[in-house]
Amino acid sequence: MAFKVTIDSQRCQGHGKCIIECPEVFDSDEQGYAVLTMTEIPDDLRPKVRQRVADCPEAALEIND
């Protein structure tokens, strides 16, 4: 089963922790802010993404089941 993640672009400050720790799902745009590399994320990546959501210093990431 797949799930989705949203990035609040108003909150993201471009720290890049999600990009460094989970490049399968996150990348950076030309300004260095997080963007998603896929729209439907495989469930096997859920623990890794959940950790990135918890670690985001700006609380800009959210898992949408």
Please tell me about this protein's structure.
The chain is an alpha+beta fold. The protein has 2 helices and 5 strands; from the N terminus they run βαβββαβ. The strands form 2 sheets. Strands 4-1-5 form a 3-stranded antiparallel sheet, with helices on one face. Strands 2-3 form a two-stranded antiparallel ribbon. It starts with a strand and ends with a strand. The mean pLDDT is 97.
What are the key terms here?
alpha+beta, 65 residues, 28% strand, 3-stranded antiparallel sheet, single chain
What is the strand and helix layout of this fold?
Elements: E1 2-7, H1 17-21, E2 26-28, E3 34-36, E4 41-42, H2 46-55, E5 61-64
Antiparallel strand pairs: 1-4, 1-5, 2-3
